[in-house]
Amino acid sequence: KAGVTQTPRYLIKTRGQQVTLSCSPISGHRSVSWYQQTPGQGLQFLFEYFSETQRNKGNFPGRFSGRQFSNSRSEMNVSTLELGDSALYLCASSRGSYNEQFFGPGTRLTVL
Amino acid sequence: AQTVTQSQPEMSVQEAETVTLSCTYDTSESDYYLFWYKQPPSRQMILVIRQEAYKQQNATENRFSVNFQKAAKSFSLKISDSQLGDAAMYFCAYRSATSGTYKYIFGTGTRLKVLA
User: Does A90 lie at the interface with B, CB-CB under 8 angstroms?
Assistant: First the structure.
Protein backbone atom coordinates (compact mmCIF):
# COMPACT_ATOMS: atom_id res chain seq x y z
CA LYS A 1 0.00 0.00 0.00
CA ALA A 2 1.54 3.29 -1.07
CA GLY A 3 2.18 5.85 1.64
CA VAL A 4 1.40 9.54 1.72
CA THR A 5 3.18 11.36 -1.08
CA GLN A 6 3.97 15.04 -1.33
CA THR A 7 5.15 17.01 -4.31
CA PRO A 8 7.40 18.73 -4.88
CA ARG A 9 9.91 17.65 -2.24
CA TYR A 10 11.93 20.85 -2.47
CA LEU A 11 10.98 24.31 -3.59
CA ILE A 12 12.76 27.63 -3.73
CA LYS A 13 10.75 30.79 -4.17
CA THR A 14 11.28 34.50 -3.70
CA ARG A 15 9.36 36.90 -1.52
CA GLY A 16 6.02 37.94 -2.95
CA GLN A 17 5.55 34.84 -5.06
CA GLN A 18 2.93 32.23 -4.44
CA VAL A 19 3.30 28.48 -4.16
CA THR A 20 1.10 25.40 -4.36
CA LEU A 21 1.99 22.18 -2.59
CA SER A 22 0.32 18.86 -3.26
CA CYS A 23 -0.47 15.88 -1.06
CA SER A 24 -1.79 12.48 -2.11
CA PRO A 25 -3.14 10.52 0.86
CA ILE A 26 -3.09 6.80 1.38
CA SER A 27 -5.80 5.10 -0.64
CA GLY A 28 -9.03 5.02 1.34
CA HIS A 29 -8.05 7.88 3.64
CA ARG A 30 -10.49 10.76 3.62
CA SER A 31 -8.87 13.10 6.12
CA VAL A 32 -5.86 15.22 5.20
CA SER A 33 -4.12 17.59 7.59
CA TRP A 34 -1.36 20.08 6.90
CA TYR A 35 1.38 21.22 9.27
CA GLN A 36 4.20 23.73 9.15
CA GLN A 37 7.40 22.56 10.82
CA THR A 38 10.14 25.01 11.79
CA PRO A 39 13.09 24.46 14.15
CA GLY A 40 11.88 26.98 16.69
CA GLN A 41 8.13 26.38 16.61
CA GLY A 42 7.89 22.64 16.06
CA LEU A 43 4.79 21.49 14.21
CA GLN A 44 2.03 24.01 13.81
CA PHE A 45 -1.36 22.85 12.60
CA LEU A 46 -2.54 24.61 9.44
CA PHE A 47 -5.84 22.95 8.54
CA GLU A 48 -7.63 19.67 8.11
CA TYR A 49 -9.87 18.54 5.29
CA PHE A 50 -12.36 15.72 5.32
CA SER A 51 -14.43 14.80 2.27
CA GLU A 52 -13.58 18.09 0.55
CA THR A 53 -14.63 20.19 3.56
CA GLN A 54 -12.30 22.14 5.80
CA ARG A 55 -13.02 20.86 9.31
CA ASN A 56 -10.58 22.88 11.34
CA LYS A 57 -8.08 25.66 10.85
CA GLY A 58 -5.02 26.73 12.79
CA ASN A 59 -3.86 30.24 13.57
CA PHE A 60 -2.31 31.18 10.26
CA PRO A 61 -3.01 34.25 8.13
CA GLY A 62 -5.36 34.12 5.18
CA ARG A 63 -2.37 33.84 2.83
CA PHE A 64 -2.45 30.15 3.69
CA SER A 65 -5.29 28.28 2.05
CA GLY A 66 -6.07 24.77 0.99
CA ARG A 67 -8.53 22.53 -0.70
CA GLN A 68 -9.33 18.89 -1.12
CA PHE A 69 -10.53 17.15 -4.23
CA SER A 70 -13.08 14.38 -4.61
CA ASN A 71 -10.28 11.79 -4.76
CA SER A 72 -9.05 13.08 -1.36
CA ARG A 73 -5.90 14.62 -2.83
CA SER A 74 -5.20 17.97 -1.23
CA GLU A 75 -3.38 21.12 -2.17
CA MET A 76 -2.08 23.90 -0.03
CA ASN A 77 -1.47 27.39 -1.36
CA VAL A 78 0.59 30.17 0.13
CA SER A 79 0.31 33.58 -1.49
CA THR A 80 2.59 36.60 -1.15
CA LEU A 81 5.41 34.56 0.33
CA GLU A 82 7.43 35.95 3.23
CA LEU A 83 10.86 34.91 4.46
CA GLY A 84 9.24 33.47 7.56
CA ASP A 85 7.28 30.99 5.46
CA SER A 86 10.45 28.98 4.93
CA ALA A 87 9.70 25.65 6.54
CA LEU A 88 9.00 21.97 6.06
CA TYR A 89 5.35 21.51 5.20
CA LEU A 90 3.99 18.17 6.24
CA CYS A 91 0.83 16.48 5.13
CA ALA A 92 -0.80 13.67 7.09
CA SER A 93 -3.70 11.47 6.13
CA SER A 94 -6.02 9.26 8.13
CA ARG A 95 -9.02 7.10 7.46
CA GLY A 96 -11.17 9.38 9.58
CA SER A 97 -10.56 12.35 11.79
CA TYR A 98 -10.08 10.16 14.87
CA ASN A 99 -7.83 7.54 13.32
CA GLU A 100 -4.04 7.41 13.35
CA GLN A 101 -2.35 9.96 11.11
CA PHE A 102 0.24 8.86 8.57
CA PHE A 103 2.71 11.52 7.54
CA GLY A 104 4.26 12.25 4.18
CA PRO A 105 7.92 13.12 3.67
CA GLY A 106 7.18 16.83 3.50
CA THR A 107 7.92 19.67 1.11
CA ARG A 108 10.91 21.82 2.05
CA LEU A 109 10.07 25.40 1.07
CA THR A 110 12.79 28.02 1.03
CA VAL A 111 11.82 31.65 0.52
CA LEU A 112 14.64 33.97 -0.56
CA ALA B 1 -6.57 26.40 24.60
CA GLN B 2 -4.58 23.24 24.88
CA THR B 3 -0.80 23.32 25.04
CA VAL B 4 1.90 20.67 24.91
CA THR B 5 5.33 21.26 26.44
CA GLN B 6 8.50 19.28 25.92
CA SER B 7 11.10 20.82 28.21
CA GLN B 8 14.07 18.79 26.98
CA PRO B 9 15.29 20.08 23.61
CA GLU B 10 17.95 17.38 23.48
CA MET B 11 18.72 14.13 25.28
CA SER B 12 21.52 11.57 24.99
CA VAL B 13 21.50 7.91 25.92
CA GLN B 14 24.06 5.17 25.73
CA GLU B 15 23.20 2.25 23.49
CA ALA B 16 21.32 -0.48 25.42
CA GLU B 17 20.44 1.94 28.22
CA THR B 18 17.04 3.39 29.11
CA VAL B 19 15.95 6.97 28.55
CA THR B 20 12.81 8.89 29.46
CA LEU B 21 11.48 11.82 27.45
CA SER B 22 9.18 14.24 29.24
CA CYS B 23 5.95 15.80 28.05
CA THR B 24 3.40 17.86 29.90
CA TYR B 25 0.17 19.23 28.56
CA ASP B 26 -2.58 21.55 29.61
CA THR B 27 -6.24 21.02 28.89
CA SER B 28 -9.60 21.44 30.52
CA GLU B 29 -11.02 18.48 28.64
CA SER B 30 -11.50 15.08 30.21
CA ASP B 31 -11.41 12.98 27.08
CA TYR B 32 -8.50 13.15 24.69
CA TYR B 33 -5.68 11.23 23.06
CA LEU B 34 -1.95 11.54 23.52
CA PHE B 35 0.72 10.42 21.09
CA TRP B 36 4.44 10.12 20.70
CA TYR B 37 5.77 10.51 17.17
CA LYS B 38 9.29 9.81 15.96
CA GLN B 39 10.94 11.73 13.13
CA PRO B 40 14.29 10.20 12.10
CA PRO B 41 16.74 12.47 10.27
CA SER B 42 15.45 13.18 6.77
CA ARG B 43 12.77 10.54 7.14
CA GLN B 44 9.04 10.51 7.62
CA MET B 45 7.33 10.96 10.94
CA ILE B 46 5.89 7.77 12.34
CA LEU B 47 3.65 7.01 15.28
CA VAL B 48 5.44 5.39 18.20
CA ILE B 49 2.68 4.99 20.74
CA ARG B 50 -0.74 6.35 21.63
CA GLN B 51 -2.70 6.63 24.84
CA GLU B 52 -6.41 7.18 25.35
CA ALA B 53 -7.04 9.43 28.34
CA TYR B 54 -9.89 7.27 29.63
CA LYS B 55 -7.57 4.27 29.94
CA GLN B 56 -5.68 4.07 33.21
CA GLN B 57 -3.30 1.42 31.96
CA ASN B 58 -0.13 2.79 30.43
CA ALA B 59 0.39 1.93 26.76
CA THR B 60 3.37 -0.16 25.70
CA GLU B 61 4.80 -1.04 22.30
CA ASN B 62 7.76 -3.39 22.54
CA ARG B 63 10.66 -1.30 23.94
CA PHE B 64 8.52 1.84 24.16
CA SER B 65 6.23 2.56 27.07
CA VAL B 66 4.56 5.61 28.54
CA ASN B 67 3.96 6.88 32.04
CA PHE B 68 0.59 8.61 31.83
CA GLN B 69 -0.30 10.69 34.86
CA LYS B 70 -3.67 12.25 34.06
CA ALA B 71 -4.00 14.33 37.20
CA ALA B 72 -0.52 15.76 36.74
CA LYS B 73 -1.07 16.12 32.98
CA SER B 74 2.16 14.33 32.30
CA PHE B 75 2.90 11.88 29.48
CA SER B 76 6.49 10.66 29.41
CA LEU B 77 8.00 8.16 26.99
CA LYS B 78 10.42 5.51 28.17
CA ILE B 79 12.68 3.81 25.66
CA SER B 80 14.32 0.65 26.97
CA ASP B 81 17.38 -1.05 25.51
CA SER B 82 18.07 1.98 23.29
CA GLN B 83 19.29 1.26 19.79
CA LEU B 84 21.15 3.41 17.28
CA GLY B 85 18.00 3.47 15.16
CA ASP B 86 16.14 5.23 17.96
CA ALA B 87 18.06 8.43 17.24
CA ALA B 88 15.46 10.93 16.06
CA MET B 89 13.29 13.87 16.99
CA TYR B 90 10.46 12.81 19.24
CA PHE B 91 7.26 14.79 19.35
CA CYS B 92 4.53 14.58 21.93
CA ALA B 93 1.06 15.39 20.60
CA TYR B 94 -2.42 15.98 21.96
CA ARG B 95 -5.73 15.56 20.22
CA SER B 96 -9.13 16.27 21.63
CA ALA B 97 -11.75 13.54 21.56
CA THR B 98 -14.50 16.12 21.49
CA SER B 99 -16.55 15.94 18.34
CA GLY B 100 -15.81 18.85 16.05
CA THR B 101 -12.26 19.36 17.28
CA TYR B 102 -9.88 17.55 15.01
CA LYS B 103 -6.53 19.25 15.19
CA TYR B 104 -3.42 17.83 16.74
CA ILE B 105 -1.28 19.98 19.01
CA PHE B 106 2.40 19.11 19.00
CA GLY B 107 5.21 19.91 21.37
CA THR B 108 8.44 21.44 20.09
CA GLY B 109 10.21 18.10 20.13
CA THR B 110 13.14 16.41 21.85
CA ARG B 111 16.17 15.39 19.85
CA LEU B 112 17.42 12.02 21.06
CA LYS B 113 21.02 11.04 20.43
CA VAL B 114 22.08 7.44 20.93
CA LEU B 115 25.75 6.95 21.73
CA ALA B 116 27.52 3.78 20.64
Answer: yes
CB-based burial label for A24 (10 Å; 0-12, 13-18, 19+): buried
Identify whether the C-beta of residue B25 lies closer than 8 Å to the C-beta of residue B4: yes
Query: How many contacts does A have with B, using Cβ atoms within 8 A?
Result: 50
Picking from B45, B86, B43, B80, the residue whose alpha carbon sits closest to that of residue B64 is: B80
Interface touch B44/A100, C-beta < 8 Å: no
For the stretch A11-70, pLDDT in tens is: 999 999 999 999 999 999 999 999 999 987 789 999 999 999 998 888 899 999 999 999
Contacts of B97 in chain A (CB under 8 A): 98
Q: Closest residue of B to A108, CA-based?
A: B42
Reported as a single tens digit per residue, the pLDDT across A42-56 is 899 999 999 999 988
CA distances from B74 to A64, B53, B60, B101 (A): 33, 11, 16, 21
